[in-house]
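If your schedule permits, I should be very grateful for your opinion on a structural question. Please examine both parts with care and let me know of anything in them that strikes you as inconsistent. The record follows directly beneath this note:
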Amino acid sequence: MKQSFADGGIDIVAISVDSPEDNREFRAKKSLTVPLLSDQDMAVISAYGLAMEGNGIAVPATFVIDGQQIIRWRHVGETQMDRPDADEVLKLAGQVGN
């Protein structure tokens, strides 16, 4: 799936509240090939309004951001498992362009 995004000129970046070491272990365990950035102080997560206050975790969310850094689409999950289908995100991102 990552290649499909790359073929469309689309970059994928994941952000987690976990430490860089935990993220490295998670990426290896799940064989992830996308960057997984650490936001332990939740600065970015809070800026996007995704901090679950008092829990130290983030609401799962997916954003499509264009080349001018404008959010063109977002999905904010209600549970940790509530995430959009990758094909849906690929289609939407392709419509946004760079």
